[in-house]
Design a protein that fits this description.
- The complex is a heterodimer of chains A (about 375) and B (about 425).
- Chain A contains 17 helices and no strands.
- Chain A is mainly α.
- Chain A folds into three domains: about 120 residues, no CATH class; about 60 residues; about 100 residues, no CATH class.
- Chain A is globular and about 105 Å long.
- Chain B is of the alpha/beta class and about 425 residues long.
- Chain B has a domain of about 70 residues.
- In chain B, about 25% of the residues lie in helices and about 20% in strands.
- Chain B contains 13 helices and 17 strands.
- Chain B has a six-stranded mixed beta sheet. Chain B has a four-stranded antiparallel beta sheet with strand order 2-8-7-4, with no helix packed on it.
- In chain B, a hairpin with a 7-residue loop joins strand 13 and strand 14.
- The longest helix of chain B has 18 residues.
- Chain B is globular, with a radius of gyration of 21 Å.
- Classes of the chains: A mainly alpha (about 375), B alpha/beta (about 425).
- At the A-B interface, helix 1 of A face strand 15, strand 16, helix 9 and helix 12 of B.
């Protein structure tokens, strides 16, 4: 008689969807590519090199960590390290020296991710932690390396202005030379400084000085809140971190992620919506006269909103929690932009909110089926 | 046709139903030896009332009801009892069974046939359903008469027949609706009579348009439902059908609803109209692991191995044997287990079909949270369970989980979420007993 047949035992369910972590991560990589094309177009091959160096460093650092900790090294190729490497590079000015992304990425992977237990266990977004580390350690390099868009092709003369303000708009601003070499958000920050200088001038009784300061601030704001500036911001003709230039191409990536079921819209919508709301409330010179369009298009909020606020590992899993996270990050971003020491608050706002994620999840757990609905 | 309704959440695994949905139900004669489990229903196993050497008739009670949540068990054949022993079971490790050597399969009508059920009171009907050993044939095997006997303070106003069959691969209920609609409809009317409800309907997923059409033609009220797993879960079906949520920890009767599987309705019809107890059922044998999948009408106590033989034997690359569907079914190490009243399918999965992915870490993507039909946070419960933080698992609602498997199915990291949650449930219940 034949040996009775024996089957493997396994837990249900016995089938599984074909979605995998690896596919998700490579979808994110694909979604980041349009913005990389924009970075290369505006800042030259140098931008591409920075992204490649950063990604390679990320995978290498991940591999070495896993090897050292005697864990399966195949994790290094699951795509998550590449995403971290790319995002960190996207948060750097194009003019940084090539060793900077290496240090930043290595820190992001080793301290930000693997020290906490690797994929899925890190508390804050590793790429943003890496960026924060670089800003703290090399503040000058991180805030002065702004390159003018297309300067690599046309030279500084033919390049667009880093502030995204067109030459015509620029010509009406008194002492316009003083604001060159800055990003749009730097210019905005300068208008806030002019506002406070004007206030102290009034306090000292120098009305004439105050008036000229306020005129200058108003003309700068007029140039920032103009359709030509909006157009440059949408296309990417501006100074800034290399991945945040072209809003349109970032959104193209976002649409791809939504179509692939990877990006859940609650986070980006609540984040960008909150930024817009508070931009209107206090993003201008006084109250309720800020310009939401300018605030959403400038700086890194679109990059952050699509690719970092929605980082799965470090943000809440509950539907309500995701909305709260977006609200919190949006508010902090705007507070930093308006009153903080930095012109941009996107990355710190996300880092701070990352820390609250476990708590948010805990207090926003959905009401279980049958607990809420009144059947009466 | 009215618009297909559904519930919130869920997922849509590939159906693979065309493997067997075109096969008519084939009646398999009783095998030479039947191994009739005494633990086919949920609750206490029947107490054996025969012993070795006894001669039994088809339909004769061989196990007596043993408590409220329990049922009697009947012999599917005329024959001689060979033994009463513990045998491997499809739904538990082992269980008591009566082994009978078959002589013939005639007769079986042990109760008086009631040609006109309306001449009998609900209590009489319920008693008959109990004596005939009818239990839920969708998989859970809960004694049907208990569902028909709500406490006096619960008013039942709606009866829903479950013809959803949302488990991938399975087609037994589909075929039954196509081939025996009259028994199902009669059963539904008898159940409605027993419950005293005027409002009754049958829920069918729109991937079975032929069944919907046939049932509607027969004058039956059909509720078309969207194809979504787990649409056939009792609570989700009720939500889609009448828009009421069964309270967490409660029963459908708490909101005035009773749900019965279509196979159960047919069994009720046969028990009442023909006087035959529950001794046969429809089973799908399918998967790429068998050569020719099919649907069968087989005796309880028939070994899975004989069903596989009827289906042309195993394919070369058979990998896993499952009792039930692929989402909630139980994997078996052997095919030497008997069919029970609750066996809806025998699934032989080939190496390419059976899940074969190593588990990765949770990346907190939230797909399980979005998909959970009970609005739980499976990843957080699993995380708590992995760290043996049972209190936290309970906080996150672990006890509400019905183990439908939706979370594990959608998980991109292939985490065994259901397993962790079940572990948490066991630990929480054990702790509750200690306290």
């Amino acid at each position: 008689m034949a040996q009775p047949r024996r089957f493997e035992l396994a837990m249900s369910p016995h089938v599984i969807s074909n979605q995998t972590t690896r596919k998700i991560m490579f979808d994110v990589v694909i979604a980041l590519l349009p913005a990389l094309a924009a970075a290369t177009w505006f800042f030259g091959p140098r931008a591409l090199f920075i992204v490649i160096i950063s990604s390679v460093t990320a995978v290498a650092a991940e591999y070495l960590c896993l090897k050292f900790m005697k864990r399966p090294v195949s994790f290094a190729l699951d795509g998550s390290a590449i995403v971290t490497g790319m995002l960190l590079a996207y948060n750097l000015p194009a003019g940084v020296p090539m060793w900077l992304p290496i240090i930043g990425t290595a820190f992001a992977i080793v301290v930000g991710k693997q020290a906490f237990g690797g994929l899925g266990h890190n508390i804050v977004n590793p790429a943003l932690l890496g960026r924060a580390f670089l800003v703290a350690s090399f503040p000058v390099l991180m805030t002065a390396g702004w390159t003018a868009p297309e300067a690599w092709r046309y030279g500084d003369e033919g390049a667009y202005s880093t502030s995204a303000i067109t030459a015509e708009e620029m010509s009406v601003i008194p002492d316009a030379d003083a604001i060159s070499g800055a990003t749009p958000l730097n210019v905005l920050k300068q208008t806030f400084d002019l506002d406070s200088s004007a206030e102290s001038a009034i306090a000292e009784g120098d009305a004439e000085e105050a008036e000229s300061l306020m005129d200058r601030a108003a003309s700068m704001r007029g140039a920032l809140y103009s359709s030509s500036t909006y157009r440059n911001l949408l296309l990417g003709r501006r100074g800034g971190c290399l991945g945040e230039t072209s809003v349109i191409l970032l959104i193209v990536g976002g649409i791809y992620l939504v179509m692939r079921g990877v990006l859940e819209l609650r986070l980006p919508i609540s984040y960008l919506g909150t930024v817009a709301l508070f931009a209107w409330i206090f993003g201008g010179s006084g109250w309720f006269n800020g310009d939401p369009v300018f605030h959403v298009l400038s700086g890194g909020v679109v990059l952050g909103g699509i690719f970092m606020v929605s980082d799965m590992v470090t943000t809440p899993v509950t539907p309500k929690g995701r909305i709260i996270f977006g609200l919190g990050a949006g508010l902090i971003t705007m507070v930093i932009r308006r009153w903080g020491g930095y012109p941009e608050g996107c990355s710190y706002s996300i880092l701070l909110m990352n820390l609250t994620t476990p708590l948010i999840d805990r207090y926003t757990k959905p009401k279980v089926f049958g607990e809420v609905k009144d059947n009466g | 046709m009215t618009k297909a309704r559904t519930f919130r959440g869920g997922t849509h695994p590939p159906g693979h139903k065309n493997l067997s949905s075109g096969q008519t139900i084939r009646r398999i004669p009783a095998p030479e030896i039947v191994r009739v489990p005494l633990c086919q229903h949920l609750g206490a196993p029947s107490k054996p009332v025969v012993s070795k050497g006894d001669s039994v008739k088809r339909g004769q009670e061989i196990g007596a009801q043993n408590g409220f949540i329990s049922l009697p068990t009947h012999s599917p054949v005329n024959g001689t009892v060979k033994s009463v022993e513990e045998l491997p079971m499809p739904h538990r490790r082992t269980g008591p069974a009566v082994v009978i050597e078959t002589e013939s399969e005639e007769g079986g009508q042990v109760f008086e046939p009631w040609k006109d059920y309306t001449a009998h009171s609900p209590d009489e009907i319920i008693e008959r359903v109990k004596l005939a050993g009818v239990c839920g044939m969708g998989g859970a095997s809960f004694p049907t008469y208990v569902k028909l006997s709500p406490p006096p303070d619960k008013v039942i106003d709606t009866l829903i027949l479950n013809g959803v069959e949302c488990e991938p691969y399975l087609t037994a209920d589909h075929r039954l609706m196509l081939e025996n609609p009259d028994d199902i409809i009669l059963g539904m009317e008898i159940l409605a009579h027993a419950l005293g409800v005027q409002n009754y309907m049958i829920g069918i997923e729109v991937n079975k348009p032929d069944a919907i059409e046939l049932m509607e033609k027969k004058g039956c009220r059909v509720l078309p439902l969207k194809v979504s797993y787990p649409q056939g879960a009792e609570k989700q079906l009720i939500d889609a059908a009448v828009g009421r949520e069964v309270p967490a920890g409660g029963l459908p009767m708490d909101i005035g609803v009773v749900v019965q599987n279509v196979g159960t309705a047919a069994a009720v019809a046969q028990a009442v109209r023909d006087g035959i107890p529950s001794i046969r059922r429809t089973i799908t044998v399918t998967g790429a692991g068998v050569r020719s999948p099919g649907n069968y009408d087989a005796c309880v106590g028939t070994l899975f191995s004989s069903l596989i033989e009827e289906s042309g034997g195993y394919a070369e690359d058979v990998q896993r044997l499952v009792s039930g569907g692929p989402m909630m079914g139980i994997s078996l190490y052997t095919d030497e287990v008997p069919v029970t009243k609750g066996t809806s399918g025998v699934l032989a999965l080939s190496a390419s079909e059976a899940r074969d992915v190593a588990e990765g870490p949770c990346i907190r993507c939230g797909k399980c949270v979005d998909a959970c039909p009970l609005r739980l946070t499976p990843n957080l419960i699993a995380l708590a369970a992995e760290n043996q933080r049972w209190g936290m698992a309970e906080d996150f609602g672990a006890l509400n989980c019905m183990a439908c498997g939706t979370c594990s199915y959608v998980c991109p990291s292939a985490r065994y979420l259901v397993h962790y949650i079940k572990k948490a449930q066991d630990a929480i219940r054990a702790r509750g007993k200690e306290a």
